[in-house]
Amino acid sequence: MSALDWIVVAGYFLVVVAIGWWSKQRIHDVADFFTARGRIPWWLSGISHHMSGYSAVMFVAFAAVAYDDGITVYFWWPLTIGLGVGVGAFLFAARWNRLRAKHDVKSPLEYLARRYNLPTQQVLAYSGAALKVVDIAAKWVAISVLLKGFADIPLEVGIIFTGVATMAYMTVGGLWADVLTDMGQFVIQAVAGFAMLFAVMIELGADFPFTMWGDLPDGHGDPVSGSVTTWLIIAFLFVKTFEYNGGMWNLAQRYMAAPSGSAAKRSALLSSALWLVWPLILFLPMVAAPLIVPGLTAGEESYVALAKELLPAGLIGLMLAGFFSHTMAMVASDSNVITAVITRDIAPVLVPKVRRLTERAQLTFARITTVLFVSLSMTIAITTRGEGFVLDTVVQLVAATMGPISIPLMLGLLPWFRRIGPTAAIVSWAGGLLVWYVVRYQIDGSTEAAIVGLPLLTSLVLYLGIGFLKPESTPESEELVLSLNSDPGEDDTDDGRPGRDQVTTG
């Protein structure tokens, strides 16, 4: 990397610091820290929702899929997400927002104690928080791999540098800092993405990408190719519909932070449209990489090799700043929501006096929790040294968490399932985790589609089957669900029953 590249990277970090300190002025209590009190404009919430799904993993692990298998990477990842978020715009987005607006919910899991019971909330909180630590560790590894490829920076140094920088702005700025960093990430990614696209077009000719397919290895132009199967795409569509509409807790926060339920719906539709269109700009150069940097034995190095081959000084720095931005924004997003879960759902049960903390003390506690959580994920990333860690971890954690946690979490919001109670929720959680363990570790030769899809399918069947055979609703839980049918001040008309704007919080 040239001196100009490092100047660009340094400039990016100065902007991040400025965002953090500007956001600090808007943070007065935990409501500001975790949900921005519903003051995030719908368009910014939508962009943030979209960008929170990216990290450096895409430019390492997914670039390897594009290099080895071709355009199929678009069909099994962003296409499934875009369709899933589009469905969720009509089912889930507004309901997440109304939890905050009507019931002062600050954590996506906070409502579970009222919807089911305290044990249900706790098992989902503990299992999700523990697994999320490892998920974030994988993202630290991904950015360190890119740093080593671009600048030969040791893995440990890259993790520590990126982690400390993320803590610095996230701890002071909360969700505002996270969302604004997402916006900055969107701008950087747009410039860097189009720069790479145009560089590949100059290299391969103005008719790129239309004429490259015949020159690529066999199957690279097929929607289903290599390790990607039709069943895997179907499984991912199933999983991503839950994951990106709130099963990945930080994305539920984006809906909660919008001004209203209708604004949250618009946010989701914007995010859906971005997922369907924008990743094509990013993936087409990755798919074309075998024509420009052929013969790589490790596909994970393809994007770095492509950038070094085509981009001039300054743009490589911008590209690296984009990688930083991707990972830091996603980790900040995850850290904020996990901190919310720990602060609002776990700590008050373990130490009841946490409930009696002043607003200022709660904010301090949230910031300390953020530092500890990020530090733990960095430690895991450094000790594993990233060997075989990135894609395996991301895929396996999706399989392990999305079904067991998201089924009771998200279906619990919908009025059609309001009579399903805690027994169905806990059994579906336990059954999904058990099936994931058996398929992943006890059955030889399990396909990726089975590992990803079966835990979620198991949780869904158990939740619905037990729930309808053994209904366990209470008047409070039914009122809570029905109150989410409309924004405050509007009539709740779903199912012919009135809802209320407030539910007893206990």
Automatic annotation (TrEMBL):
| Membrane-protein topology | Multi-pass membrane protein
Per UniProt, which keywords does this protein have?
Answer: Cell membrane, Ion transport, Membrane, Sodium, Sodium transport, Symport, Transmembrane, Transmembrane helix, Transport
Q: Classify the main location.
A: membrane
Q: Which domain of life is it from?
A: Bacteria
Example GO molecular function: symporter activity
Name the segments for region: Disordered. 478-506
Q: Which InterPro entries match?
A: Na/Glc_symporter_sf (IPR038377), Na/solute_symporter (IPR001734), Sodium:Solute_Symporter (IPR050277)
Catalytic activity of the protein: L-proline(in) + Na(+)(in) = L-proline(out) + Na(+)(out)
* Any one GO CC term of the record: plasma membrane
Q: Where in the cell is it found?
A: Cell membrane
The membrane-spanning stretches of this chain are: 6-22, 42-67, 73-94, 123-147, 159-179, 186-208, 228-252, 273-293, 313-332, 363-382, 394-417, 424-443, 449-469
What does the record list as GO biological process?
sodium ion transport
Short name of one Pfam family for this protein? SSF
Family to which this protein belongs: Belongs to the sodium:solute symporter (SSF) (TC 2.A.21) family.
Protein name, please? Na+:solute symporter
Q: Which organism is it from?
A: Streptomyces sedi
